[in-house]
């Protein structure tokens, strides 16, 4: 009855925690889900909302949107929940890039925001070379960066025509997917992951957003992500934590992250969107 009485709109803002105080708005990583923010939401002393991809629910009228288009949709939901800022925006991995773009769009509307990037990268990005690699990258993300050997073997021996079915079965056998998720649902998850990865690779961040905090996972073999961010955020604050890309959003680091975000809010003040700043941004 509740569903029938609704307007049919798929909301992308997922309430993750209640309470009073400064609301924290979290943007989804490349997979589109906000499930990885559960520990951070528990640790935050206030309301938490996660912006989750509408495409996960099959609501994908525009095909594969750009990262700026994704942020625009989340901006509309944000303004519905909180008409005025300053806003506290954060995100892990691609979610940080979304949060930064969201802040830039809000600035153009005269609103200010804090931005926290949790191991977000805008330079060291590589798209999968083929379908087999696309499945492997999606499942590796699902497995927290450590893909079980049986899944690796199943992907390696699967025929091209049966690749999705083999990947789906292997992921379920390894406990990476729930038993009720059918192959069509699995294909949708892989498509959302791939579309978001392409949107991230094509995105070029808008300069001038401030204040921005970047927390880097220092146990990742890659070129340093800081210089690329420093080029678009001259006032960037950087911290390096002894974590890998996935462990940085696990339980203990999430509690530390909640504390650091709270201190970032008290230590800084969002830049006001003055007429001069808006003119420079345009």
Overview features:
7-stranded mixed sheet; 282 residues; disordered C terminus; 13% strand; 7 strands; alpha/beta
Q: Count the helices. How many? A: 11
What is the string of SSEs from the N terminus onward? Answer: HEEHEHEHEHHHHEHEHH
Structure class: alpha/beta
Q: Termini, distance in Å? A: 47 Å
What would you report as the Rg, rounded to the nearest angstrom?
19 Å
- Tally of DSSP β-strands: 7
pLDDT below 50 for ≥5 consecutive residues: which ranges?
275-282
Coarse morphology: globular
How would you characterize the largest beta sheet?
Answer: 7 strands, mixed
Major sheet: arrangement of strands: 1-3-2-4-5-6-7
How much of the sequence lies in strands comes to 5-15%
- The helix fraction, in percent, is 40-55%
Mean pLDDT: 90
How would you describe what is shown here?
Helix 6 runs antiparallel to helix 7 (163-173). The chain is globular. It starts with a helix and ends with a helix. The chain has 282 residues and is of the alpha/beta class. The chain contains 11 helices and 7 strands. The model is unreliable at 275-282 (pLDDT under 50). It has a 7-stranded mixed beta sheet, with helices on both faces.
């Amino acid at each position: 009855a509740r569903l029938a009485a609704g307007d049919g709109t798929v909301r992308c803002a997922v309430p993750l925690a209640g309470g009073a105080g400064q609301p924290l708005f979290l943007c989804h990583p490349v997979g589109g889900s906000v499930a990885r923010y559960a520990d951070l939401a528990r640790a935050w002393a206030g309301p938490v909302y996660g912006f989750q991809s509408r495409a996960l629910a099959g609501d994908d009228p525009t095909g594969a949107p750009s990262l700026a288009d994704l942020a625009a949709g989340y901006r509309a939901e944000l303004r519905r929940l909180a008409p005025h800022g300053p806003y506290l925006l954060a995100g892990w991995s691609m979610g940080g890039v979304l949060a930064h773009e969201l802040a830039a769009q809000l600035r153009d509307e005269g609103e200010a925001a804090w931005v926290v990037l949790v191991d977000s990268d805008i330079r060291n990005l590589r798209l999968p070379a083929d379908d087999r690699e696309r499945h492997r990258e999606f499942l590796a993300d699902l497995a927290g960066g450590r893909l079980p050997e049986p899944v690796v073997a199943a992907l390696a021996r699967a025929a091209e025509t049966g690749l999705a079915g083999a990947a789906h079965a292997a992921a379920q056998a390894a406990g990476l997917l729930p038993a009720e998720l059918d192959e069509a649902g699995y294909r949708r998850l892989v498509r959302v992951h791939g579309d978001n990865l392409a949107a991230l690779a094509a995105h070029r961040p808008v300069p001038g957003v401030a204040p921005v905090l970047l927390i880097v996972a220092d146990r990742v073999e890659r070129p340093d992500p800081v210089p690329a961010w420093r080029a678009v955020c001259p006032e960037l604050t950087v911290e390096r934590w002894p974590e890998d890309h996935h462990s940085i959003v696990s339980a203990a680091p999430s509690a530390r992250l909640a504390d650091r975000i709270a201190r970032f809010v008290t230590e800084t003040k969002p830049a006001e969107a003055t007429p001069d700043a808006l003119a420079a941004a345009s």
